[in-house]
Every structure is written in C-alpha cells, then in structure tokens.
Design a protein that fits this description.
Layout lengths: L6 H10 L2 H15 L3 H11 L8 H37 L6 H8 L4 H11 L5 H5 L6
Helix pairs in contact: 2-3, 4-6
C-alpha cells in the first residue's frame, strides 16, 4: 500500500529524522530523480524549509536563492543610483522635472535605459526631451 503525504508532512517527517538519516534520504532521492520533472518537485519539497538540512543539495538550493537575490539587489541598486544621478544632473543644470517625470525616472528598474537617459541629460534642454513626453490620460 502506498501512502501519500502532503508537502508539509514530508518535510516534517524529515525534520524529525536524525540528521544522519535525513541527509542521505534527501541526497539519494535527488540523485535518483536526476533530470526528471519530479526532480524539481523534490527540490521544491525540500526547499520549503531547508533550515534544518545541511546536505550538499540543500546548500545548493540556498546558494541559488542567494545568487538570485544578489542579482536582483544589484540591479535595483544600479537603477536607483542612476535615477538619483539623472535627477542630480537635471537639478544642477536647472532643468525642471515634473512629478510625473520624476516618478517615471525613480520607478524605472532598467539600468540600461536609465544610463541612456543619463547620457542624454547632459545635453538635453528639458526632462521631457530625455525621458519622453509625459503620458496624458
């Protein structure tokens, strides 16, 4: 007879198992699944709460999450810095910036686009010329 358990129950069962038993189960199951679609489901299962796992696979999952978070944070940081620089150029050059244009600049998350705007801002005569005409509803 096969018993099926919900995801939290499986995770709880492994959490209560001694580490020297849980670790090989996690690793051997992952290796046995290989590249099959069920492998991703297994990764998701053990990723629900991996704080108690110390296996290679759980560390790999954590590292992937850290890398994704770092990339996202760096991109957001670059965009924020470029937006501040763009607004500073407008301010230093005495170019008026409407609330709508300011919002468009500060909410832009694309560092490449912000960099193009920043370059154009050094010679433009208006903020609208740099970021485009404000949208009218």
């Amino acid at each position: 007879m096969t018993y099926t358990h919900s995801q939290p129950e499986r995770s709880a069962a492994l959490r209560e198992a001694p580490e020297d038993i849980a670790d090989p189960i996690v690793e051997l199951t992952a290796q046995g699944l290989g590249n099959r679609p069920a492998a991703q489901q297994w990764r998701n299962l053990v990723a629900v709460d991996t704080s108690f796992y110390t296996s290679f696979m759980s560390e790999e999952i954590r590292d992937e999450g850290r890398a994704e978070g770092l990339d996202k944070g760096l991109t957001e940081g670059r965009a924020e810095g470029l937006a501040k620089g763009l607004l500073l150029i407008f301010d230093v050059r005495g170019i008026a910036v409407t609330d709508e244009i300011r919002e468009k600049i500060t909410s832009c998350g694309d560092p490449q686009l912000l960099n193009r705007w920043l370059e154009h801002a050094t010679t433009a005569s208006s903020a609208e010329e740099v970021v485009g005409q404000p949208q009218v509803d």
